[in-house]
Design a protein that fits this description.
With about 280 residues, the chain is an alpha/beta fold. The protein has two domains: about 5-205, Rossmann fold (3-Layer(aba) Sandwich); about 215-280, Orthogonal Bundle (Helicase, Ruva Protein, domain 3), CATH 1.10.8.100. Helices cover about 40% and strands about 20% of the residues. The protein contains twelve helices and nine strands. The strands form two sheets. It has a seven-stranded mixed β-sheet with strand order 4-3-2-5-6-9-7. A two-stranded antiparallel sheet has the order 1-8. Helix 9 (about 215-225) crosses helix 12. The longest helix is centred in the C-terminal third of the chain and has 15 residues, at about 265-280. The chain binds S-adenosylmethionine (SAM). The site of S-adenosylmethionine has 24 residues, from strand 1, helix 3 and strand 3.
Length: about 280
């Protein structure tokens, strides 16, 4: 089929496709949103695009018209023959039938230089996918993703607000964030219950803050936000360090142990975790 003619409703009807709620299947039916995702991702003909969850291939078709090549990763076995039938004859398209959480992205990326991830993500695995893509250290230039509005708000949150948490720290450590647009439930079939946001995460050349050991920093972040209501002191105590030395680390960092994790900036997490690193080594 001509890529321009790939339309969600028509393909759903043609193949009598049955949506699976548990796979987070809400397919896009609004052309303006498709355009905004592709333009927002700044796709050009040097780009290798990796797409997670192509559905019936509506967004994939738009990507194929602009990119050097597109590889889509789809978990649902019912969608594989549809995608092969509709998009298989495009030489710059390949399809991986797999759970995106189990894909080896290093192997997939190989020595490609301009790699961008674009996806209307299944909402039930949004956070684990973002965590995998960022922590894996893969060579992505950017991730342009449609996610639940609440998750986008958490990603973009500043200290001292209730949305600020481990996900905000993780994403802001690795990326600059750009909100592309809001998307209403009416732009999908079936309609989700929540509003969505298209956001682009541009990977920084190097992490936003310097740390002696980022593993320790993220341990501290996790401990702090797992116990949001408790003081940082109570959270930090779980990090297997001698109490007196921990007191010393807080003192040297200038960070009041009575503060809560949600008040700490990324820089402060880095400073405190560096002193914790020192007392552990
Ligand atoms: N890209 C299509 C669109 O915009 O219309 C479909 C997006 S739909 C929100 C999410 C897609 O992700 C579905 O096709 C679903 O089957 C697929 N999916 C769900 N879990 C997945 C996983 N773990 N790995 C890969 N694909 C998955």
């Amino acid at each position: 089929m001509d890529l321009k003619d790939i339309k969600t409703q028509e393909l759903v009807k043609k193949y009598n496709f049955k949506f699976s709620k548990s796979l987070g299947q809400n397919f896009l039916v609004d052309d303006s949103v498709l355009d905004d995702i592709v333009n927002g991702a700044e796709v050009n003909n040097d780009d290798f695009i990796i797409e997670i969850g192509p559905g019936v291939g509506t967004l994939t078709a738009q990507l194929l018209m602009k990119a050097k090549k597109v590889t889509s990763i789809e978990l649902d076995s019912d969608l594989i023959p549809i995608l092969e039938q509709e998009l298989g004859e495009n030489e710059n398209f390949s399809l991986i039938h797999k759970d995106a959480l189990k894909v080896d992205f290093n192997e997939l990326i190989g020595d490609e230089k301009s790699v961008k991830l674009v996806a209307n993500l299944p909402y039930y695995v949004t956070t684990p996918i973002i965590v995998k893509l960022l922590k894996g250290g893969y060579n992505f230039k950017s991730l342009t993703i449609m996610i639940q509005k609440e998750v986008a708000e958490r990603i973009n949150a500043e200290p001292n607000c209730k949305e600020y948490g481990a996900l905000s720290v993780l994403v802001q450590y690795y990326c600059d964030t750009n909100i592309i647009r809001k998307v209403s439930p009416t732009c999908f079939i079936p309609r989700p219950k929540v509003e969505s946001i298209v956001i682009r995460l541009d990977r920084l050349d190097k992490p936003r803050v310097k740390t002696k050991d980022m593993g320790i920093m993220f341990e501290l972040v996790r401990a702090g936000f797992n116990m949001r209501r408790k003081t940082l002191w109570n959270a930090a105590k779980t990090l297997r360090v001698d109490k007196e030395k921990l007191e010393e680390a807080f003192e040297k960092s200038g960070i009041d142990p009575k503060r809560r994790a949600e008040t700490l900036t990324l820089e402060e997490f880095a400073v405190l975790s560096d002193f914790i690193y020192d007392i552990r080594n």
